[in-house]
Design brief:
The protein is of the alpha+beta class. Helices cover about 35% and strands about 20% of the residues.
Length: about 100
Amino acid sequence: MMTRMTTSEKDVERALRLMVERHGGVCLKWVCPSFAGVPDRIVLMPGGRIIFVEVKRPKGGKVGKLQEWWAERLTTLGFEHYFIWNKEDVERLEKAL
């Protein structure tokens, strides 16, 4: 089982991608050069559901002020936004699907 202490951010991103794909979705890496702090991933699910995900380093990953701002902005616009640190967080998102 993954924990904050034993996994890397890459492991968590992989678990997220595989979970999304199992549910018929696509997990895209999002790079937006003009806007700092945007979430790492855009999850596109069947039925037009769009979820923004910021994957943090399991050990020592911190949420920055711009990342907090984007999370609030996106949820205010009606989008789902999750911060994911570990496999348990991926499972929490999976339950929300």
